[in-house]
Amino acid sequence: MFVEEFICSITKKAPNDVFFLFESLNNLLQNSTEQVNAVTADLIDLELLHEIETIVKNGNTSVYFGKTLRDLKLMIEDEEFRKHEMFIQYKSPKKLIILSANLPLSSMQNLEFGCINEIIEIFKQHVNDLAKYFYELDNIDQCCTVMEPQNATYKDEYRRIFLDDRTWLHIEVTLEGLGTNIHLVGQSEYWNNKLQSGLLNWDHDKNIVDNIITIFDISQFPEPTSTVPGHLCSEADGAKLTTIVCGICLCTDLPEIPGLPLPLCQNSSCGVYYHRSCLYEWLVACAGNRPPAFGVATGACPTCLQPITCSKTDS
Amino acid sequence: MAAMSPSERRLQKELMSLMKEPPPGVTVDGDQASQNLTLWTVHMEGVPGTLYEGEKFVLQFKFTNKYPFDSPEVTFIGNNIPIHPHVYSNGHICLSILTDDWSPALSVQSVCLSIVSMLSSCKEKKRPPDNSFYVKTCNKNPKKTKWWYHDDSV
Description:
- Chain B: Residues 6-154 form the UBC core domain.
- The complex is a heterodimer.
- By secondary structure, chain A is α+β, with helices and mostly antiparallel strands.
- Chain A is 34% helix and 21% strand.
- The longest helix of chain A is centred in the N-terminal third of the chain and has 14 residues, at 18-31.
- Chain B is of the alpha+beta class.
- In chain B, 27% of the residues lie in helices and 14% in strands.
- In chain B, strands 1-2-3-4 form a 4-stranded antiparallel sheet.
- The radius of gyration of chain B is 15 Å and the shape is globular.
């Protein structure tokens, strides 16, 4: 009996139906116990299947199978009805590890667990500890125009908030829900002066959004005006977030290098964004491919020809 | 689908936008270009009210895998090469943005517009003064020519 093939065929038929899988597996076991035991023991743990069955019957957590029966996805709902995804892997009997989740995992990733319920308990505790973190991120995502990351999730511990076409505010949120490493992307003197004087009065008892409102003395968060000028593809039909493309590669995302196009040109009438890596490559190529001193390339903006500088990495 | 290189990605985007919203009098051969993204044929019509009214020209764009960091190789092809002080009879064009002044912020569309405007501002149809010598001695690739941009007015 080709157990592996058999399991493949049933998982294809009903990839997420644990009961069906379980029933089919039971049938199989009853029909040919001897042959199967040796193989299944290696493939999948019956104890684990029983546990999955109980978890799914309880209804608080959904369990899905991945590419193999060893890869599981858990969907756990917290007290605020947020759904959290977690990917776990069955290593060997009573040895499960967490592969990834849609939120920062801190030290949980390197631990081994005896059963799924153990993981769920620890995860729920972790989620409770992160309550303030979720609150702050939700609040930022609701009140501000977040330019980066695109489609931000709880896994992203930072936000880049739109201030104007040339300036974004970078803020990281600690797992305790505190704002940290706050700085500007872009070199606007106006926003920078406010940030420098305001940071001293940052009040950790107030939430992040209120702090930003106080620092910059704004009544509401600015939003990008229709489309950012100078781009070939602006398919933001009335959407709040405009699609920003790099003036060099005309793309938003680069598969090879993370990061979105940035307002790197400081000429206020230019308004074209570039990927740091694209602009850097061009400026270095213009300078005869010699690596620049201190990793900062200088030259002319490809669009407006005004002087521009670009460091190799995001500082 | 195989992963596209950065130059292919950009060319694909430019092609889509040029086919969707071509500048007046300019049409790109989309079928040919999508089969081979590194070789485009662009048809161009002389602008009404200029010396080239009613004429039809064909431009060829060749791209390397370094595009847009490397400028495209642009020449007139076919049997109607415009008679213009900056266009040699072999189709080579003396235009600074095609070599020294190239910038990755330029595009096929902006190159086409520059060429249209170069033709449109012409006051007298004639070949460049060094045409016969240049055509006999030049490299096949106009980017290998060390151009001397002697006249900004046309």
